[in-house]
Amino acid sequence: MTMACSRRLRRLRPGLTLLAALTVAATFALRGTLLATPPSPAGCHAASPLLAGPRPARPPPSPPTLAEIEMRNGALWSGGFYSPPGCQARHRTAIVIPYRSRLAHLRYLLDHLHPFLQRQRIHYGIYVVEQWGQGTFNKGILLNAGIVEVLRDADWSCVILHDVDLLAEDDRNTYTCDNYNPTHLSVAIDKFDYRLLYREYFGGVVALTPEQLRKMNGFSNQYWGWGREDDDLWKRVGLSGMKVVRPSVKVARYKMIKHERDPGNEENPHNFDVLKRTELDWRSDGLNSLSYKFLSKERKALFTHITIDVGEKQT
Ligand code: BGN
After folding, report:
1. From the CA of 209, how far away is ligand 1's center (Å)?
2. 231 CB less than 6 Å from ligand 1?
């Protein structure tokens, strides 16, 4: 820009600024009078005033019935959705619970999770994704299918993959996502003396944005039977250029409800071999190669129940 030109602009600027301000003011006045849009509720505060802090989970000897839990959660919409009254939620979180024949655990978890999330004042929905039939369990396919189905269902900004047997013990452990990196929420579990099991442990409860899930191509579909699909997920995070972040071990505390290994979910030694191949396979094995049969979606009072067929065990 020449000296003369910039001097001319400087002279013009005060006039231009006034004109711009008048235009903006006129636009707002017009909007206010002509469109009369009701004021939208203010955004919910980052730290909810309803938080209770540390609270050891003490599940009763037998779980409450679904009807009892429903009575205690009158503010839910059909399908297990919730939006905080009086303020605009800052986050939209889908909780995905992989499931097969663990009704007692599911009842404990729902009884615990609904009030926990409502104290955090987030907009959320709970989805139970069930593997149909008696075949070998495949948690990776189940979670991949859950991710696809919930993102098809609504505009979620965060997906939390949640084991059915874990109860969070401190509501300052917020069920939201980090914008850049996958989050491991179940850092300290009572069964492991409230210590991180090992540095690469990425199981239990994890939070990922749809973008992060796409980047890492979701889970592998090749883990049949118990274990290691979460170790594979850890590797995918690094391979796709991200890192796992964790809240403080003081806050990210969980109680695990005791149980026996489920039939159809026996440990599969072959999964160790699959884990050795993550680096080679992750780009072509995952969300982009997922195959399952959608069987049903039912809106229940406390959750949306999705049932799928993962197919036959491959290895
Ligand atoms: C780990 C399993 C995980 C499982 C956790 C919690 C392995 C790989 C060797 C380090 N991983 O030991 O898949 O989620 O236990 O039970 O065995």
Report:
1. 24
2. yes
Among the listed residues 210, 214, 217, the one whose alpha carbon sits nearest the alpha carbon of residue 179 = 210
Q: What is the pTM of this model?
A: 0.87
Domain CATH number, residue 15:
3.90.550.10
User: What pLDDT does 223 receive?
Assistant: 98
List, by residue number, the catalytic residues: 163, 165, 226, 229-230, 256, 259, 261
Whole-number Cα distances in Å, 74 to 81, 114, 160, 225 = 11, 11, 23, 38
- What mean pLDDT do residues 117-127 have? 97
Instruction: Answer yes or no: is the C-beta of 200 below 6 A from any ligand 1 atom.
Output: no
Atom 15 of ligand 1, residue of closest alpha carbon:
227
Is residue 222 within 8 A of residue 281, CB to CB? The reply is yes
> What domain range includes position 198?
3-38+78-309
Is position 267 within any domain? Answer: yes
59 in a structural domain: no
Beta carbon of 163 within 6 Å of any ligand 1 atom: no
- Total tally of structural domains belonging to the chain: 1
